[in-house]
Amino acid sequence: MEPFAPGKSLPLAVELKRRWIALRNRVIGSQRFQQLAARSPLLRPVARRRSAMLFDLVAGFVYSQVLQAVVEAGLLEQLGDDPASTAELAQTGQLGLPAMERLLRAAAALGLVEALGEAGWMLGEQGAALRANAGAQAMIRHHRLLYADLAEPLALLRDDRAKPTALSSFWAYGTQGVDAGEYSALMAQSQEMVADQVLASGVFDRCEALLDVGGGRAVFAGKVRESYPGLRLGVFDLPEVVAQIGTDAAGQALARHPGDFFKDSLPAGYQWISLVRILHDHDDDRALALLRAIRAALPPEGHLLVAEPMAGVRGGERMGDAYFGLYLWAMRSGRPRRPDEIGALLRQAGFSGWRSVPTGLPVVTSLIVANT
């Protein structure tokens, strides 16, 4: 994008939008307007809401640390249908009474727990939802690495992804097989949420054979099999990762294909191939190479499913650009892409067309289906 120069001629629609934004910002940024809004019965609710939103941005890191403390202290497991006292929770979290009281009050302010008077504490609405979401809990625990990398955000951005980070070391460590177990466990837990959204979309209703590329421990493939028991399924991933697929009925029904999708050809014979939270992990050159390898492996009238959080998708804007934008920068590889950016890569890779498929929770994943 070229820098704006005063006096430069802009398309009419862009110029009108620029004028509106400039006017809006002058009004909102005026102390006189802010004082008026705080006093006006009509504007006061709007002013309070905007003030709260701004403070949430300021205090967001503290909120995230309260969340991490609640998860790591074991409070979600301790608080079930029955209340627990501060003393009981302090013992569970290995904290003193004053510290646990402080944490519980902070967690209550965020809706994670709820006070029940002298009876103690129970889970709040947010805590109850989180307790049922193992994938979100796994990511919260994993975030200690991200928080360490973001301690100096401008320093992280200025080094142009040249220096190793806590996140880049973790992902390289896992994929090189030194600790593939921790790497695969995190991926498995986070894929549960994505699988539910994919299956709800019905994209596999006419699918006969599916290969999940980068499929890890086959969590996604296993969920697909539960909904489509007659579907022929395969998983392609690194040898040390594929070796961890279980030997239960679901595992036995899966064809296991060990290999490196940047070095080895993908197996043929599958009508569909899926990429679940894989493409955004890679820069454009490697993403394009992977898409070309998939195109070569698919038959005529074959299909590719891309499932991952995407930038610019309504309802998932913050997750796409703000969260994954910084996460993938710290990871030293990949970027969040808009659907049209993925579509451009698909065209370059030789796919004839693509379409977006809506999901109920774009904050979890968006979907694209491409045709050979």
From TrEMBL:
Entries under PROSITE patterns matching the protein: SAM_OMT_II (PS51683)
Sequence ranges assigned to domain O-methyltransferase C-terminal in this UniProt record: 148-352
SUPFAM superfamilies named in the record: S-adenosyl-L-methionine-dependent methyltransferases, Winged helix' DNA-binding domain
Ranges for domain O-methyltransferase dimerisation: 56-115
Keywords on record: Methyltransferase, S-adenosyl-L-methionine, Transferase
Record GO biological process: methylation
Active-site residues, Swiss-Prot/TrEMBL: 280
InterPro entries: COMT-like, COMT_C, COMT_dimerisation, SAM-dependent_MTases_sf, WH-like_DNA-bd_sf, WH_DNA-bd_sf
Domain of life: Bacteria
A GO molecular-function descriptor: O-methyltransferase activity
Protein name: Methyltransferase
Upper taxonomic lineage: Bacteria, Pseudomonadati, Pseudomonadota, Alphaproteobacteria, Sphingomonadales
